[in-house]
Amino acid sequence: MQGLNRPSRCIFCGSSDFVEAISYDAAPNGENHFDLQGQTYLRSYDRCRTCEHHYGTHGLDLSTLYESQYVSSVYGDIAGMDQRLRRILSLSPEESDNAARVTRIEYFASRNITNRKRLLDIGAGIGVFPATIRKSGWDVTAIERDQRTVTHLRKNVEVNAFGDSLFDLDPNILGDFDAITLNKVLEHVEEPITLLSRAAKFLASDGFIYVELPDVLAAEQGYFREEFFIEHHHVFSPASYTLLAERANLLLINLDRFREPSGKFSLGGFMKLRDTK
């Protein structure tokens, strides 16, 4: 697979020791269909031998994926987003990944912060998490790139929502948040450390950040799982997750490894600002 974009050095541990873990010349079963506009489907995952982080490597242009194509491919339109939202919200707690996520966050919040007022959900998707957490009294602000999703979040989820890039929003105007959540978001961006560092600019001094990510443990059951679909630039190990927090100058409070009701393998942890005193 010559000519594809592969890392020269791991952005987490600094190692330059990589091995190709898997290559694909066609979309695996279940992967969302995206219009590649004539580009040849050819990609791989390179594994860092030191920290076990997996990098999605390819020569495909996916730069506009989340501005419009993702919503069109997965949900169709605003009505489709609302229909999927209602279906997921109707799941029992035993069936719901989101219910377990909310429980983790509420438990941590009850023991670690005095204020439970403002929450910023970055990459909110169709709003399953914001719709649930707001019922616990949080004032939720959501960020998504597709304007249709922003409209859906405002109308159907009834939260404040922005379609701007996080880098275009001003922390001095938007204000501090007591909690910031990135639920299955950082794997979709090429530079997760940069985005997490930017998110921390919006965090109140005694607040927390919750980050949930796909776990490389899924590879033990095969590389044709959702964790390794084309839209995932990164799949994390506990080591690279820990280093993610460190590189973003955040203090990792705890990290859990779990299999969700849907069958996904995930990592979820809480971070706080480092004490600069």
Précis, in short:
This protein is α/β, with parallel strands linked by helices and 277 residues long. The chain has helices at 65-74, 78-89, 97-112, 128-133, 147-157, 171-174, 192-200, 238-247; strands spanning 18-24, 43-48, 54-58, 118-122, 139-143, 160-162, 177-183, 203-214, 234-235, 250-259, 265-273.
Gross morphology is globular
CATH fold label: Rossmann fold
Strand content: 25-35%
The computed structural class is: alpha/beta
Q: Would you identify the regions where 5 or more consecutive residues have pLDDT less than 50?
A: none
Look at the structure and give the CATH class: Alpha Beta
**Rounded average pLDDT:** 93
Helix fraction by DSSP (H/I, runs of at least 4): 25-40%
Count the strands? Answer: 11
Gyration radius, rounded: 18 Å
**Major sheet: size, sense and barrel closure?**
7 strands, mixed
State the order of secondary-structure elements, H for helix, E for strand.
EEEHHHEHEHEHEHEEHEE
- N- and C-termini, Cα separation: 49 Å
In CATH terms, what is the architecture?
A: 3-Layer(aba) Sandwich
Number of helices: 8
Question: Explain this structure to me?
Answer:
The protein is of the alpha/beta class and 277 residues long. The protein has 8 helices and 11 strands. The chain has helices at residues 65-74, 78-89, 97-112, 128-133, 147-157, 171-174, 192-200, 238-247; strands spanning 18-24, 43-48, 54-58, 118-122, 139-143, 160-162, 177-183, 203-214, 234-235, 250-259, 265-273. Helix 2 (78-89) crosses helix 5 (147-157). The longest helix has 16 residues, at 97-112. The mean pLDDT is 93.
